[in-house]
């Protein structure tokens, strides 16, 4: 065989080997903002020789809609506690083998003991991060920090309020009307009559609303552009505004507030379940949890993350007073009549 023929064979062999080379696996996420930040995801990609691709959601209903529409597009999702139960019982998520998640035992028992992601004896999700829906405000706009949700209805704030384009605003208005007493869980199971009263209450708020937000980045920009001075938001926005040196304050009003527990789940349609298990395990490890908190301002489900934090960070995330702090948060629960809540919210937005 001549040199040219041998060279040609080597080239063909190299091309064939290249075409047969194993592709880099991609893990596709459908998650809230801040849950796929390069500051920690890059380490997972390098350790597992893979790529993580994230799509972001602006509401729990957005997540459910996308998951039902194209389930094969996603491997890992991060539903909040108001839709986690529905996802666990609807066949959209895969039951978890907790033996593949050694760190699961470190997670807060206050969170793992809840039945939100359990069905027929199986566990479908791991608690990941939790936190409140606090009141966020521009400190330069108030002589004294506001201390009640009722301030949002103050006529002096006409055109200066922002609200989340989500039924969470329904929960907040229901609190103002006292429907959380004596049972906070009733916020998620309101009657038709109560929902009509809530609708009327939110419509009364509309003159004060300058803009609604769907993502954290939107609300952060609304504040920076001085299009609103007060809103119900997430600690993530407070974190973003503080990093931008914006004069932002954050409080839980005297009525208390709603809160959420985000879970990580593996979709039933995922073709990368082994890699997805590795991702869940990585994300609930103490050091990663600390890094996620750095980005989001949320409280980690793994209390062992505190060992990587300063005393001030532990205090600010309420890892030193979990029980008393959680008593002020009315964690989202499964909303059985979610379609009705969304109907009310659509009527609010359509009202003139």
Give structural notes.
This protein is α/β, with parallel strands linked by helices and 352 residues long. It has two domains: 26-130 and 260-327, Periplasmic binding protein-like II (D-Maltodextrin-Binding Protein, domain 2, 3-Layer(aba) Sandwich); 132-258 and 334-350, 3-Layer(aba) Sandwich (D-Maltodextrin-Binding Protein, domain 2). The protein is built from 14 helices and 14 strands. Strands 1, 2, 3, 6, 12, 13 and 14 form a seven-stranded mixed sheet that branches. It has a five-stranded mixed sheet with strand order 9-8-10-7-11, with helices on one face. Helix 2 links the parallel strand 1 and strand 2. The longest helix has 18 residues, at 3-20. The protein is globular. The model has no long low-confidence stretch (mean pLDDT 94).
